[in-house]
Amino acid sequence: MNPLIEQLKKYGYLSEKLQEEIAKRTQFFSKNKYEHLLREGQIMSSYFVISKGIIRSYFHANGKEVNSWFGEENEIFCSVLPLYKRRPSFENIQFLEDSELYILSVEDLDAIYQQFPEFNLIGRLLAEEVCIIMEERITSLHTEFAIERYHSLIKKQPKLLNRINLGHIASYLGITAETLSRIRR
Amino acid sequence: MNPLIEQLKKYGYLSEKLQEEIAKRTQFFSKNKYEHLLREGQIMSSYFVISKGIIRSYFHANGKEVNSWFGEENEIFCSVLPLYKRRPSFENIQFLEDSELYILSVEDLDAIYQQFPEFNLIGRLLAEEVCIIMEERITSLHTEFAIERYHSLIKKQPKLLNRINLGHIASYLGITAETLSRIRR
DNA sequence: CGCATATTTTGATGTACATCAAAAAAACGC
DNA sequence: GCGTTTTTTTGATGTACATCAAAATATGCG
């Protein structure tokens, strides 16, 4: 069982041969809490799925860490800028629990695109899905008050509250921990 | 000369046959200032390029119009939700000048994907590009003050200021026209 | 041109959220 | 289990931006 393949299958048909190729190239990692998968400035990139654990993506702005997203089990992720543009990441990806994950590096991904051009369909649908998610996030940041953004988040990722401290959540929402505390009361 | 094909070529090779097929399916429209290309609730969708004119995309939030983006000549655009998910649009696309544009409808696009599977590569790169642009917008809304967002905008679309009134710009920035006026001073 | 309308600016005041400080509560390590 | 560290809450005060009203300016149109 390869969780990456399971996730990719959600976007379309993968032939046996293609599945074998992906399986062959998939790397498995165990990581400890607070380790990093990616640090800003790196170009190393990949699609990946966490089979166990949780991650945050954060970057630095105005001298502070700002969380940009959280990742839970059985979703497919990537760092957009390195994967889609081969440009250095401005974000850091860090494990917030001891975690296990499956990675398909950008080099392996390219090789697969070469060998199985039909895989571009999956890649297209994946990127299109990311667009949808990002559009929601933009609208939320553009028009909602902090409390509405908070409710949107717990609606979309309800388990997050039990796994991640409120300081991290506040940072994702674009407010301080103090404000989040007052909002929740 | 088909401006849509010119834009698509930026993302990769298009065979003669593929270009012919796109050209055959491309529709040309002239539109007057204040006409709409798309209204919220509609599913009708497409990729399109404006050869002359300017557009804004806006939606309704808290009883007000909120501008989500502006489009100028010779860029390829779409409405993400209808095109990528076949879901009703929540945004409206309106011309702010008398305009001319070239459209490839979602039905024609699907037909092309069927007939030329290699076009999925272009579609993938296009969607990936949209992700990059959206990520920047998210970061801007997440961490910047209004004045910084203003400077980002005029850096990225410097001609906008001469073509669009400040109320529209303010709405895009997520502030009121009054605040924008004070910021500019 | 001259009047009507739309846009931009200015001023007074209100509100969402930030900052700083410190207490309270929870989690962690030995 | 107890002390240390981290997280969360509470309070006082500051700031970025909103709201409402109205004046100044620009634009559109017969």
- What is the gyration radius of chain A calculated from CA atoms? 17 Å
Order of helices and strands of chain A: HHEEEEEEHEEHHHHHH
List low-pLDDT spans of chain A. Answer: none
Sheet with the most strands, sense and barrel status of chain A: 4 strands, antiparallel
Multimerization state: homodimer
Mean pLDDT level of chain A: 96
Secondary structure tally: strands of chain A = 8
If interface size is counted as residues with C-beta under 8 Å from the partner's C-beta, which chains form the largest one?
A-B, 31 and 31 residues
Main β-sheet, spatial strand arrangement of chain A: 1-8-3-6
Give the topology:
Two copies of one chain form a homodimer.
Chain A: H1 3-9, H2 16-25, E1 27-31, E2 36-38, E3 46-52, E4 55-61, E5 64-71, E6 76-78, H3 80-85, E7 92-95, E8 99-105, H4 106-115, H5 119-143, H6 146-156, H7 160-163, H8 166-173, H9 177-184
Antiparallel strand pairs in A: 1-8, 2-7, 3-6, 3-8, 4-5, 4-7
Chain A binds a DNA duplex (30 and 30 nucleotides) through helix 9.
List keywords for this structure.
4-stranded antiparallel beta sheet, homodimer, 185 residues, alpha+beta, DNA-binding, 8 strands, 9 helices
